[in-house]
Amino acid sequence: MKNSMKTKKKTTKKAVKKVVKKKAIKKVLKKVVKKEKKLGKVTHYFDKIKVVAIKLSDTVSVGDTIRIVGGENTDFKQKIVSMQFKSEKLKKAKKGQEVGIKVKERAREGYKVFKV
Q: Is 32 helix (H, G, I), strand (E, B) or coil?
């Protein structure tokens, strides 16, 4: 009976270590996510000029770094170099506006945009 109790303790310790590792990983991921704030959602992608239309849920400025995430393969970061609203160049955009931002990779409707 003593041998069976020892093996149970060993497996329990292993299980606890796995749970602790998973919790540590989750904490790290939460810290990364907290640094990024949801900025909006892609409403349209203009393929020929490589511009996304984004409906903003927060303010954003030229020079800010954004991250676009969606689908299986799309996850990229970039600085905002140019931004327009109704064909006028902007330096800063407010919550609720729909702005066009030049991007380096393809993005589709519904992709999420974060401010890094």
A: helix
Q: How far apart are CA 79 and CA 35, in angstroms?
A: 16
**pLDDT tens digits for 33-46?**
567 899 999 999 99
Do residues 27 and 44 make contact, with C-beta atoms less than 8 angstroms apart? no
Bridge partners (DSSP) of residue 92 are 61
CA 53 vs. chain centroid, Å, equals 17
Report the chain's mean pLDDT, rounded to a whole number.
83
- Write down the domain spans for the chain: 1-35, 37-115
Tell me if the domain spanning 37-115 has CATH number 2.40.30.10.
Answer: yes
Would you say residue 92 has pLDDT above 70? Answer: yes
